[in-house]
Design goal:
By secondary structure, this protein is mainly beta. Helices cover about 0% and strands about 50% of the residues. It is built from two helices and 38 strands. The longest helix is centred in the first third of the chain and has 8 residues.
Length: about 500
């Protein structure tokens, strides 16, 4: 890129004295091709790199069609990096962009607006190597007026730098940002002769910010931002590291007490995988790992753990607690860590024997359960047919759904038949309301083949229950009478 020097009378006199350093360089974005990323774009031009990203789930920044203007939307940020320290930028607003302009906030320096001449100017008190510009929420300039969503369109930028001047390097952190479960001692270093200024309240540090004198002891969620200032007062770019400390949970029950979105470090002790489900969705492979410990059960969703039903888990899992349709669930994020988990072979999971009424509470959510002696019914709701397991009295019922796509059918034609159903207790949202559902893993029709059926009062022989305990008389259900299995109605 060709650099051109622009001189005032004062600048000319300085040139004659041999001490002029200012240089002006123009970057025309309409002549450049951008490289798109998942949440924005990057481009480079000579001494400069421009990186634009979306924030808070907003629309990603882009190049504006055939005009190739750069377009930033509300809350988008563009970071400008320079090989020489920068003191001024003059953005030229595109013709289309003049319709709806928002103000932008720089990480350092100040902004002035000259919309009549289609220009926005940034200036800094001292040269910096890096500066961020974040777009405001609402439009305040342009023909469409205030109240519209903010955006910032431009096609070129003229940058004034300290040509040949050394860029002050940003401070270095001894401990990188990340997720930690123990306190961290962080040391900041900078080039000889530089003073470090830092903040921990989220604001951008300046020459007036706290001076770093000793290591920082960090034990809670903290974002540290730091700049270095040389002897002339020239500031470096901002170095930022974020330290995150998850809530330590001793068991699954403790996780369920947290608020949605909480980062947790769950300690699993002899926890067992009671069911594993993997499925394809829009080309992606998703998984549900239903895990039970002594305190309860939970779904571990889309976290890479090499486990199968029966596996035993021990160790710590860092992830986010995010119930789905009120079903307790752990999901992964950029800081998810399962490296400390050990997975060992275990025995076949044993379903907890419960009643239909038990399933309407919260105790068995995400757990492997078994209900026996139930009948199958169906109800038509609009264009859908819903299937239910009902207890013997027909008082309690539980919706059934073949979530795991096992091909399990729910025959309802013969109301005299009873079934034993094993499955995972979950939930779903129907017609705007959350309802509990049993996701069957097995359904078996109960038969009386080889089993006698008698009335309780006619039994004369010794009577035992299935645990081998002697009974005074037969009880409703399955008994052992005279060495034979007998159903008492």
């Amino acid at each position: 890129m060709v650099k051109t020097l622009r001189f005032s009378l004062f600048g000319l006199l300085m040139l004659l004295c041999g001490s002029i350093n200012a240089a002006v360089e123009n970057v025309d974005f309409t002549t450049l091709e951008i490289t798109k990323t998942d949440d924005g774009f990057t481009l480079e031009s000579g001494n400069y790199a421009f990186t634009a990203v979306k924030n808070n789930g907003q629309t990603a920044p882009t190049q504006n069609g055939s005009s190739k203007d750069i377009r930033l939307y509300a809350k988008n940020t563009i970071t400008v990096n320079s090989t020489n320290a920068m003191q001024k930028m003059v953005f030229t607003i595109s013709k289309q962009g003049l319709k709806r302009q928002a103000e932008i906030t720089p990480s350092v320096g100040t902004m002035t607006y000259d919309m009549d001449n289609s220009q926005v100017t940034w200036t800094a008190d001292a040269p910096v190597a890096v500066v961020d510009f974040t777009v405001g929420d609402k439009a305040v300039y342009g023909s469409e007026g205030a109240g519209k969503a903010g955006q910032f369109d431009f096609n070129s930028v003229e940058i004034t730098t300290d040509e040949g001047g050394a860029v002050v390097e940003a401070p270095a952190f001894s401990v990188p940002g990340g997720i930690y479960t123990t306190p961290q001692t962080v040391t900041l270093t900078a080039a000889a002769g530089c003073t470090i200024h830092y903040t921990i309240d989220g604001t951008t540090p300046t020459a007036e910010s706290t001076v770093y004198t000793e290591p920082l002891n960090i034990s809670e969620n903290t974002t540290v931002k730091a700049v270095a200032a040389d002897a002339k007062g020239t500031l470096s770019g901002v170095a930022t590291e974020t330290y995150t400390f998850p809530v330590v949970c001793a068991d699954i029950a403790a996780v369920k007490q947290q608020e949605t979105g909480t980062l947790v470090a769950l300690t699993l002790t002899d926890a067992q995988v009671v069911y594993y489900n993997s499925y394809e969705n829009n080309g992606n492979t998703n998984s549900d790992i239903f895990v039970r410990d002594a305190s309860g059960a939970i779904d571990i969703y889309n976290i890479k753990i090499e486990a199968k039903a029966g596996s035993m888990l021990n160790g710590t899992l860092v992830c986010t607690y995010s119930p789905y349709n009120e079903m307790p669930e752990l999901i992964g994020n950029e800081g998810t860590d399962a490296a400390t988990l050990t997975v060992t072979e275990g025995s076949e999971p044993v379903a907890k024997k419960v009643t239909v009424a038990d399933l309407n509470g919260e105790t068995y959510m995400c757990d492997l359960v078994e209900i026996s002696n139930v009948k199958l019914t169906e109800e038509v709701s609009g264009k859908y047919t819903n299937y239910y397991a009902t207890d013997e009295d027909g008082v309690n019922k539980m919706m059934l759904y073949d979530k795991f796509k096992l091909g399990i059918e729910f025959p309802t034609a013969d109301n005299t038949k009873t079934y034993t159903i094993t499955g995972i207790l979950g939930s779903a949202k129907l017609s705007g309301s959350v309802v509990k559902e049993l996701f069957p893993t097995k359904a078996v029709e109960e038969t009386v083949s080889g089993i006698s059926s008698i009335e309780a009062e006619n039994a004369q022989e010794a009577v035992y229950n299935l645990n081998g305990q002697r009974l005074a008389k037969p009880q409703k259900g399955l008994n052992i009478i005279g060495g034979k299995k007998v159903i008492v109605k």
